[in-house]
Structures are given as structure tokens and as C-alpha cells.
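Sequence and structure are kept together here, with a separate record for every protein. An example record follows, reproduced without changes.
>
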Amino acid sequence: MAIHLLDDSLEIEIFIDQADAEFADDVCVRVIETCPEEEKIFYAGETNIYLTREQARQIVAEFQKVLEAAE
């Protein structure tokens, strides 16, 4: 399942990349941008960031802290 941001011009997918299962950093955060070049955040239309499972857990924990603090 993808998360769509910025009027659907930015798509984020998070998944375990089975092709990289042999590596510790097999959690893939895929960012796809369909906006005009001058509006892009990244240089490419698609960017993959690979994380270890512990790094992914740290990101989730930080999101939870921010959300709890905002309540």
C-alpha cells in the first residue's frame, strides 16, 4: 500500500525487498515523484532508501513521540 502526499504527486511505499533479503538493510522506502522537474524534492523520479529493521523501528518510534507530544 502506498501513501500519497502533496496532491498525489509524491508516493511513498514501504516494504521488505525480497531481492535484498540476504542483507541487513532490506526495508525499502520507495519515493516516487510525478510532479514537474522544478517541483521535485529528489533528483530522480524514483528514489529508494534502504534501512535495517532497527533503523525502521527508530523512525516509527520518532513518529510516535511526535504524535503523542502533539496530543
